[in-house]
């Protein structure tokens, strides 16, 4: 089954969404591309209203938006003929990015921030950590991050492939509770409803089995890069990180209005486990770098009893030569020696930690000349052993 055609929203049963605090909304090219080329606000307006309603309710939303290449093609219609393959697409993306951000900014009074990511940003642990910190800071500042793959510099062998999978990665990156995928079909069916009258809508999918994937097909849109199969692949990635995925028809004003009131007409794809359990499991089993961060009894008590972040004031020193973004052990040094206490992602290198040990967080920048934040390890990046 592909997602090239719009079907009727009445086929799916309305269901209430579980509570969520932070979400990623993925919007595909098929919802933004104008018939004559370029971008259209026709469906983007309703989706923007969904975002605004949730932001006003105290929630946080990150948009992953396609459409830059389609926008660039409208600016220079013959651009695709001037180059070959990825180079032409990179040029079109560069031309269209400003148009894409301008489209979203027109719907919001709050600032819209453009964030361009590449495969390298997400496979390199330190760059991953920097991307995460930037997105979380943008949310804390009350802005609306709009994420896209950096097609201008990506090459085929390093591309994330499509924005469905990018959205899943971003959902895990920012510890989202939900991934909303707006498409131009109502949800997942047991078969292609356009060619099979016996196709049934699936309101819920509890496990993404091979049989479920067999119901999906390739891309059916002339402007998109993926069909329902890529959406299921994205849901699998998100689910492994404890993030639930919701597929819905972004062309239906009724469906989008209902979604703003936590009512879904579409397909709910359950996560394999809770978000917290998924992250803690990863933290517990990811390879650890040689060395350790040494802490005193006061810091150990704060970590164990209060679930606090590790601050430099409770750090005695650091062993080894690990770098920012590495997974390292936290060890308690006492009269009876050292014992393993926790493990987590270091916000600072071993060399930096030795310089800021026993200092107050406010002194970090004065000592180092820069600061990555007040924590040596944030509590969300730490698990007790």
Automatic annotation (TrEMBL):
Tell me if Transferase is a UniProt keyword of this record: yes
| Superkingdom as given in the UniProt entry | Bacteria
Molecular function terms from GO: glutamate 5-kinase activity
Catalyzed chemical reaction(s) = L-glutamate + ATP = L-glutamyl 5-phosphate + ADP
- Pathway membership: Amino-acid biosynthesis; L-proline biosynthesis; L-glutamate 5-semialdehyde from L-glutamate: step 1/2
Q: Where in the numbering of this chain does the PUA domain appear?
A: 291-377
Which enzyme class?
Answer: transferase
Per the record, the similarity remark reads: Belongs to the glutamate 5-kinase family.
Q: What does this protein do?
A: Catalyzes the transfer of a phosphate group to glutamate to form L-glutamate 5-phosphate.
Protein name as it appears in the record = Glutamate 5-kinase
Organism of this sequence: Pseudoxanthomonas winnipegensis
């Amino acid at each position: 089954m592909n997602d090239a055609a719009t079907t009727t929203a009445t086929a799916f049963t309305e269901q209430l969404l579980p509570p969520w605090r932070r979400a990623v909304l993925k919007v595909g090219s098929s919802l933004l591309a104008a018939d004559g080329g370029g971008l259209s606000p026709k469906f983007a307006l309703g989706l923007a209203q969904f975002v605004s309603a949730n932001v006003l309710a105290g929630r946080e939303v990150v948009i992953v938006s396609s459409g830059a290449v389609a926008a660039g093609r409208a600016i220079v219609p013959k651009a695709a003929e001037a180059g070959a393959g990825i180079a032409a697409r990179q040029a079109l993306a560069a031309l269209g990015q400003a148009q894409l951000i301008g489209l979203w900014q027109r719907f919001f009074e709050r600032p819209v921030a453009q964030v361009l990511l590449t495969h390298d940003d997400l496979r390199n642990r330190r760059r991953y950590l920097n991307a995460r910190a930037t997105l979380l800071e943008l949310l804390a500042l009350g802005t609306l991050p709009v994420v896209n793959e950096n097609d201008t510099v990506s090459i085929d062998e390093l591309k994330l492939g499509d924005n469905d999978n990018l959205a899943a990665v971003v959902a895990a990156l920012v510890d989202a509770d939900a991934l909303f995928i707006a498409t131009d079909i109502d949800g997942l069916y047991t078969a292609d409803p356009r060619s099979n009258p016996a196709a049934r809508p699936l309101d819920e999918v509890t496990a993404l089995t091979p049989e479920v994937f067999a119901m999906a097909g390739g891309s059916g849109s002339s402007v998109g890069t993926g069909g329902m199969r890529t959406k299921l692949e994205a849901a699998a990635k998100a689910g492994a990180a404890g993030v639930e995925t919701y597929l819905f028809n972004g062309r239906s004003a009724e469906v989008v209005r209902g979604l703003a009131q936590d009512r879904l007409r579409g397909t709910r794809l359950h996560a394999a486990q809770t978000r917290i359990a998924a992250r803690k499991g990863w933290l517990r089993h990811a390879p650890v770098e040689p060395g350790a961060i040494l802490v005193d009894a006061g810091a150990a008590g704060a970590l164990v009893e209060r679930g606090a972040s590790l601050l430099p004031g409770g750090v005695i020193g650091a062993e080894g030569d690990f770098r920012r973004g590495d997974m390292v052990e936290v060890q308690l040094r006492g009269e009876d020696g050292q014992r393993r206490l926790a493990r987590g992602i270091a916000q600072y290198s071993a060399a930096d930690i030795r310089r800021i040990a026993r200092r107050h967080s406010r002194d970090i920048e004065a000592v180092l000349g820069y600061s990555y934040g007040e924590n040596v390890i944030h509590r969300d990046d730490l698990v007790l052993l």
